[in-house]
């Protein structure tokens, strides 16, 4: 089979000419492409700002051309003056649009993890170190956009909400900061890729079955018959993974150290959530969805739990950090070409 010939840049742009949106995408992906995400603050210098006429600007230029031709044909001195004044205003707007972006510093913020199907909120901080106001700015990221302005010396955090459709890593990707200020005749913009991503957890299964029985810590696989968490046993030093429900708050209120309550049977049983124990008829995503629902239920119950996936195990613990660690393992499951059991 003959190899496909790669289209030249000229052919690519020519094929996109019928649509202004297609031409814009070609320009941003070919002429203005930037390959790798940038984690450090991004400063918009003259090398990163681009200016082209907007749709209104093209209509304005066409109208000036018609006025100039009419002034030449009829020898209208006032027509010449009007054309040159309007043309000067249009050229001045290029400088002002360019200056409206110059010197802005862009810093990637944070994005809290979400479950698949929920909206992910990307935060991007913009710094205006100049002593002038920067009006009519626009920020586009994926399908989201926001309009705002920066006051003199202001730092603003812009939040953009995007839909998450599947688990895994959701990158912010190619983003655009733009302005059409002051007259809307030209569009100045800058393309950048912030080092910003969101972890998307598998959506919990609706009406998931109850949590599996606790297993004996000695590996026997029999349900533990020892008393549960309701039987207080002793106190021990607090650990980061401990649930707030088990903290001895009364001891702390009396000025004592931060301790955690231990309960009889706590050391003798384990809530084991295991990939291999799930029904064989469930596919990969259905298994991850069920494990996600079980992790949330286990955390709500206050019990310690472990998670075992293919080639990876997270040991017994509980607490918010442990929950996010387990959910993150589900979100990124299979990204390293893991082989699943038949």
UniProtKB/TrEMBL annotation:
Keyword Membrane in record: yes
TM segment ranges: 49-72, 78-98
Keywords recorded for this protein, A-Z: Membrane, Transmembrane, Transmembrane helix
Keyword Membrane assigned: yes
Name assigned to this protein: Uncharacterized protein
Organism, as annotated: Thauera terpenica 58Eu
């Amino acid at each position: 089979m003959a190899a496909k010939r790669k289209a030249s840049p000229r052919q690519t742009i020519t094929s996109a000419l019928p649509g202004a949106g297609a031409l814009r995408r070609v320009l941003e992906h070919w002429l203005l492409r930037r390959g790798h995400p940038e984690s450090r603050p991004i400063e918009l210098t003259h090398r990163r700002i681009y200016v082209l006429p907007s749709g209104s600007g093209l209509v304005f230029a066409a109208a000036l051309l018609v006025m100039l031709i009419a002034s030449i044909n009829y020898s209208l001195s006032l027509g010449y003056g009007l054309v040159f004044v309007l043309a000067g205003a249009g050229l001045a707007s290029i400088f002002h649009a360019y200056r409206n972006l110059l010197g802005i510093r862009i810093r990637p913020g944070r994005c809290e993890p979400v479950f698949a199907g929920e909206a992910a909120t990307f935060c991007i901080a913009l710094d205006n170190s100049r002593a002038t106001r920067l009006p009519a700015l626009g920020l586009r990221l994926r399908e989201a956009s926001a309009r705002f302005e920066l006051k003199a010396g202001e730092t603003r955090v812009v939040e953009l909400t995007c839909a998450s459709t599947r688990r895994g890593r959701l990158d912010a990707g190619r983003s655009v900061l733009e302005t059409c200020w002051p007259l809307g005749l030209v569009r100045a913009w800058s393309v950048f890729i912030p080092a910003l991503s969101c972890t998307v957890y598998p959506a919990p299964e609706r009406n998931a079955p109850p949590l599996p029985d606790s297993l004996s810590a000695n590996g026997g696989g029999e349900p533990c018959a020892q008393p549960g968490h309701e039987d207080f046993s002793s106190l021990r030093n607090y650990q980061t993974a401990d649930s707030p429900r088990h903290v001895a708050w009364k001891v702390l209120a009396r000025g004592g150290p931060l301790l955690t309550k231990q309960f009889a049977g706590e050391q003798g049983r384990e809530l084991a959530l295991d990939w291999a124990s799930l029904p064989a008829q469930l596919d990969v995503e259905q298994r991850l969805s069920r494990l996600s629902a079980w992790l949330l239920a286990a955390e709500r119950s206050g019990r310690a739990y472990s998670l075992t996936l293919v080639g990876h195990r997270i040991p017994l613990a509980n607490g918010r950090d442990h929950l996010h660690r387990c959910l993150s393992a589900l979100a990124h499951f299979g990204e390293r070409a893991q082989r699943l059991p038949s």
